[in-house]
Amino acid sequence: MTKHHQHLGLSFRHGAEEERWVDDSSVDHRGRPPLRAATGSWKAAMFIILIEFSERLSYFGIATSLMIYLTKVLHQDMKVAAENSNYWMSVTTLMPLLGGFLADAYLGRFRTVLFSTVVYLLGLVVLAVAQLTPGLRPGGGSVPRIHETLFFVGIYLVSVGTGGHKPALESFGGDQFDDGHAGERLQKMSYFNWWNCALCSGVLLGVTVVVYVQERVGWGAATVLLAAVMGCSLVVYLAGWRTYRYRVPQGSPLTPLLRVVVAAVRKRRLRLPADVGDLHEEDGGKKRLLCHTEQLRCLDKAAIVEHDGEGRRGAWRLATLTQVEETKLVVSMVPIWVATLPFGITTAQVSTFFVKQGSVMDRRMGPHFVLPPASIFALAAVAMIATVALYDKVLEPCLRRVTGTERGLSVLRRIGVGMALAVVAIAVAAVVERRRLHSTATMSVFWLVPQFALMGVADGFALVGLQEYFYDQVPDSMRSLGIGLYLSVIGAGSFLSGLVIAAADHVSSHGGRRAGWFGKDLSRSRLDLFYWLLAAISAVNLGFYVLVAARYSYKQTVKAKRVSASDVECATAVAA
Prior knowledge:
Blueprint: H1 3-20, H2 41-63, H3 66-73, H4 78-107, H5 109-132, H6 145-174, H7 182-216, H8 219-239, H9 254-266, H10 321-339, H11 341-348, H12 350-359, H13 378-403, H14 411-438, H15 449-472, H16 479-508, H17 527-550, E1 556-558, E2 570-572
Antiparallel strand pairs: 1-2
GO biological process, one term: transmembrane transport
Subcellular location: Membrane
Protein name: Major facilitator superfamily (MFS) profile domain-containing protein
């Protein structure tokens, strides 16, 4: 047998082994390398997608009715209710930063989801107790202080549960697909689309069925229903434990980044070598190595090898080129994160002021049925489901053929399209609100269809794009934290929305000396002017986002596991 035939035989056996076993640092439930045919991909992801469906059903069953509950049950003013709602959504969507860190560093994603679901259930139980116990329920126009206390304790326990549940679950689902396998890599792109379809299906039922139970049966009965669904989803999640691929936590993912910064500062006076190959790099083993990029060259000094003693090669003195590039990735994300915050502010209006608009409009659908105000949110969910499905099955395949790239439309361009549509949606909302204020008759709630539908389409582009971006572009050891960063865009946006409301009210009312934009109810408010303010902020910010996105360098990985000094073959992880 010739050497050529021997080489072909070895290559064939190596390819067969790669096809049989997953070689991406994940393990099966027994801690061994996973068998590809028995673990991961869609067979495992379906269990995870199902629990996401039930969690979003519970969350939106609470979130979309929160403004109604605060104003009608707790008798809060519209401005106070909007601020409380925004602050709760802010905490709920910022908590995943802590949850993602704990999942990546110490608990692991599987256990983080498990513990978070238990906390989530506890929050729902506290809510049910406050709403069903006779001595605690509001009645006769008065609200017992203990009811209000238990209510806020319950919803903030849900926030804590969501903080661990959301980042760990979505990244755990992404872990079921091997980036080094061409077929599974394409499946992962579809995974984020269908994840959002399941998410929106949960939203759809949450703002229709659950809200209907709240309106017709009672708030307590609806909360018991949500708790039962979450309990069942926990059983489903545990049922798939044998098919999952697990990642063993390796300690704080922030420590290597800090080491790079410290090493670069220590060697700031050294001159960078002319050849990038002279920078320190090691065989990554199962870890993916990253290609060198020209941005933030000052950090490259952390990988300069000093030849005057072993003490110069400590972890806080010398970093690998891959660790340097991982630090660059995180730093480069900051401008993108900042540029997407106005989109988060716009998104916050959908479940607050958009729903409040619907509550004062004609919601009759025939002689015997009145649409609950929170159910109007279903329009956005339907639009997002349709957008994601069409994008996955029609638009993306067409764009792949036209551009010749694996993705079709780059992830940052997808986000930009969604942000542009959100500007149009908030402008349409301003036009509709102005017409409502000047209308002599009560307008039909179907006037809100365009703004809800446009926001749903915008979410189908921007939110899915943000999920992919923050999952794919962070270092592999930070993927739960990456999902937390995506959610923090919405959380920080909700928090900023509350600040913008307070600032706009202060300025428009001249410090409270006259009527401002936000009265006790919508008929005495100028919500249309507030919407135009948001549209202007978002439009200006869109220009800033385009500039930032145009300068962004995507993560690049080294194909070969061993790299030589000068010839490294790189493949972009995300097509530009």
